[in-house]
Design goal:
elongated, binds manganese (II) ion, alpha+beta, six-stranded mixed sheet, 51% helix
Length: 697
């Protein structure tokens, strides 16, 4: 059985190698002899492992030297073979790659961490000289992960964690898409077995249905449309890998049932222009989902990935992600830098983004004084977009860069987030807006009476935290409005001298409210004003109603006072404000950030009082300045992002800067500070927006 498997491997391998089959055969004979009598933990003869590694490299289209090095990759570490011997039999090129993959042997290290760090250092220096070292290392790791099942749970977790921390980001940066996704799914299985099973069984249940939809409905109809337009294209579909589905549920804070792009359709054409023609056909045949279009052809990812991505609503109302690319882009997407390698053997990569990344990686490795610093620098280089932290029990949690303890708390559980009272990082109390760092161990302190604070919305970065905080705040606000509504209803009953039933009946008839609760909410939020109710009963409110709730301010609880809003900073309801006592205009309200306010504060602090907003109606102006990448369509994207939040634009000015950036000044009208924050947040998440500033003074 094993012999058959071995022979089959050899045949498959030789079939994939075009030139120099002799050297490959020689390497196979060599490892058969050197690894003779050695067995893998799986019980199989050791040679099956290097054969699998070489086969994988051959499938990636790697050159002969890499494949031969793949066969020989363990002989220096695990057999008595020497470098000189390898050089003599297989040449210096192959010997160098194998040497690069080999761990540091004999030197004794003071601890495991130092050993790990030094091995990383060696590996990175080796692959910066010859990228093929990392291809072999990744293929080796891929096969080791595939055979990890026979090891102890402890070792499985350790290896999987190292893979996710080090090898996955490297594969990602090199654009080795296939290795990256396969490694991720394997890590997922070992690090989060429960979640893995959940996603797997969910996908298993729904995939069949989706597949038949794509095969029988979506693709035929797309094909017809493309034919009508005279376009020739190759159409396939591909399943999204499990880890990315799971990551999506976390990133977006959604349930598995709400992940719609389990399968994506891929359209491959010959020329770049055809990509855009296909896009036009797709968008006119099916309704595109707004905000789901990405042009990675004009703006490739750092790892050189190119494609057009769009999500559309297909027949029967199902969402489908469509990726459009040329064959060349496809090749590069599948094999990453390896494809590049296959085309231009031996050529260096000076002009690609990968090269500069590699350079900074090497610099940080060489510049690190000790192992601790090296591991830290390595993490920083590898995870520019994610931060890896740990629970007190040592479980790994992956969050987007910039995440705070509140994001962590909501990641653990909604209730933990909702009652989050404080946080400890590495045993020390930190503020809740602390930005988590790689390797932090995070502990959340909770208290049953603690509730989410609106301020959290200013610093959380995960959508799960955002949506959960908003939901709770909405609920709290609703309760407050209900309470206010009840109070106002009592007041009306008293003043109008009516029975409760009569009043309710009339109001339900006259407003959109269907229930008493809805009516109380209208009254409490001020959307149904007391004036309006009085006028309904033909009673003039000029009889001086005791309150004009809609825009009162409280000074330290003293009740409403005469005030004006400062024109310099245009304070928004809901933000932190201070009043400046003046002779002519009473109290002038300034935003806490206003430079004029801070000036007064310094020269006559006695004139400044803390003021709390009650509520305010109507729209308020706010001025903002953006610094953006100066590119076609940027202004349209910015204005539509603003409009989507519901804010009005009353003035816009733009100016190109010599730096290739553009300045955009806007005056907007918003209801309150929360709304402004929403505008800010949606602009900051736009690609190309570099800075956002509120203009004051
Ligand atoms: Mn190996």
């Amino acid at each position: 059985m094993q012999v058959v498997a071995r022979k089959e491997q050899e045949e498959r391998l030789l079939k994939l190698v075009e030139a120099g089959k002799e050297l490959v055969k020689k390497a196979i004979e060599f490892i058969e002899e050197r690894h003779a009598g050695q067995y893998r933990k799986t019980g199989e003869p050791y040679v099956l492992h290097p054969l699998e590694v070489a086969l994988y490299l051959a499938q990636l289209g790697m050159d002969r030297s890499t494949i031969v090095a793949g066969l020989l990759h363990d002989v220096l570490e695990d057999t008595a073979t020497t470098y000189e011997e390898l050089k003599e039999h297989f040449g210096e090129e192959v010997a160098e790659i194998v040497e690069g993959v080999t761990k540091l042997g004999k030197i004794p290290f003071k601890d495991l961490q130092t050993q790990k760090a030094e091995n990383y250092r060696k590996l990175i220096l080796a692959f910066s000289k010859d990228l093929r070292v990392i291809f072999v290392k990744l293929a080796d790791r891929w096969h080791n992960m595939k055979t990890l099942h026979c090891f102890s749970r402890e070792k499985q977790v350790r290896i999987a964690r190292e893979t996710l921390e080090l090898f996955v980001p490297i594969a990602n940066r090199l654009g080795l898409w296939r290795i990256k996704t396969e490694l991720e799914d394997l890590c997922f299985m070992y690090l989060y077995p429960k979640e893995y099973e959940e996603v797997k069984s969910f996908v298993g249940k729904t995939r069949e249905e989706l597949e038949s939809y794509l095969k029988e409905v979506f693709i035929p109809s797309l094909r017809r449309e493309l034919q009508k337009a005279g376009l020739e294209a190759h159409i396939t579909y591909r399943p999204k890998h499990l880890y990315s589905i799971w990551q999506k549920t976390i990133r977006k804070g959604i349930r598995l049932e709400d992940v719609h792009d389990l399968l994506g359709v891929r359209v491959i054409v010959n020329m770049v222009q055809e990509c855009y023609l296909v896009l036009g056909v797709v968008h006119s045949a099916f309704k595109p989902v707004p905000g789901k279009f990405d042009d990675y052809i004009s703006l490739p990812k750092p790892n050189l990935y190119q494609s057009l991505h769009t999500t559309v609503i297909g027949p029967e109302g199902k969402m489908v992600e469509v990726q459009i690319r040329t064959w060349e882009m496809h090749e590069r997407a599948e094999k990453g830098i390896a494809a590049h390698w296959a085309y231009k053997e031996g050529k260096n990569l000076q002009d690609s983004g990968v090269y500069s990344w590699l350079k900074s990686l090497v610099e940080s490795v060489q510049g690190s004084k000790n192992s601790e610093e090296l591991l830290e620098n390595l993490r920083l280089e590898l995870f520019s977009e994610e931060v890896f932290v740990f629970t007190p029990r040592g479980d790994l949690v992956v969050l987007p860069k910039g995440a705070t303890p509140v994001d962590f708390a909501y990641h653990i559980h909604t209730e933990v987030g909702n009652h989050c009272a404080g946080a400890k990082v590495n045993g020390k109390i930190v503020p809740l807006y602390y930005r988590l760092q790689n390797g932090d161990q995070v502990e959340i302190l909770t208290h049953p009476n603690k509730k989410p604070n609106p301020e959290w919305l200013n610093f959380v970065v995960t959508s799960k935290a955002k949506s959960r905080i908003k939901a709770v705040l909405k609920e709290l606000e609703k309760n407050r409005y209900l309470q206010l509504g009840r109070e106002r209803l009592e007041k009306l009953l008293h003043r109008l001298n009516l029975s409760r039933e009569a009043l309710l009946e009339k109001l339900l008839e006259d407003t959109k409210a269907k229930t008493e609760e809805e009516l109380l909410l209208l009254l409490g939020s001020g959307r149904l004003s007391l004036e309006r109710v009085y006028s309904l009963f033909k009673k003039s409110h000029r009889e001086k109603p005791q309150e004009k709730v809609e825009d009162t301010l409280q000074i330290d609880g003293l009740g409403s006072v005469l005030h004006t809003l400062a024109g310099c900073c245009n304070p928004l309801p809901g933000e932190e404000v201070y009043g400046v006592i003046t002779k002519g205009k009473g109290l002038v309200i300034h935003s806490k950030e206003c430079p004029n306010l801070n000036h007064v504060r310094q020269i006559s602090p006695e004139k400044v009082v803390k003021v709390l907003w009650d509520r305010s109606k109507g729209l308020h102006p706010v001025r903002i300045r953006l610094v953006v990448k100066d590119r076609v369509g940027m202004l349209a994207e910015v204005t539509s992002a603003i409009s989507r939040t519901g804010a009005n634009i009353t003035e816009a000015k733009t100016k190109s800067l010599p730096s290739g950036e553009a300045l955009m000044d806007f005056t907007l009208q918003v209801e309150n500070y929360q709304k402004f924050l929403r505008v800010k947040e949606s602009l900051q998440s736009l690609e190309g927006v570099e800075r956002l500033q509120r203009l004051m003074g």
